[in-house]
Amino acid sequence: MSNYIIKLREQVATLEVEAEEIRDRAQEFRIHFAGPKFSGTEHDGSCKDWISTAEVEQWLRHVVG
Predict the structure, then answer these.
(1) pTM across the whole model
(2) Rounded Cα distance, 59 and 9, in Å
């Protein structure tokens, strides 16, 4: 087997690991949104469905780097 094919297989394996890590972090993000911070109502009766843009940016950095 040529060195080129071996190198490509190694690259594929590395990318598969990285993709799985991104999927895991994206799932953490989904779980966060399903949590109590975003469900139910506030004391004044308003919905607890807002998220700050800074929090979104923080999560995006965590998910995709």
Answers:
(1) 0.75
(2) 31
H helix or E strand, kind and range, residue 3: helix 3-34
Q: Which amino acid is residue 13, in one-letter code? A: A
Q: How many domains does the chain have?
A: 1
- Please give the chain's pLDDT, 65 residues, in tens: 799 999 999 999 999 999 999 999 999 999 998 888 888 888 888 888 888 999 999 999 999 87
Helix (H) or strand (E) holding 59: helix 53-64
Range of the domain at 43: 3-64
Tell me the C-alpha distance between 36 and 46, whole Å. 14
C-alpha 20/C-alpha 16 separation (Å) is 6
Nearest to 32 by CA among 56, 15, 11: 56
3-state secondary structure of 52: coil
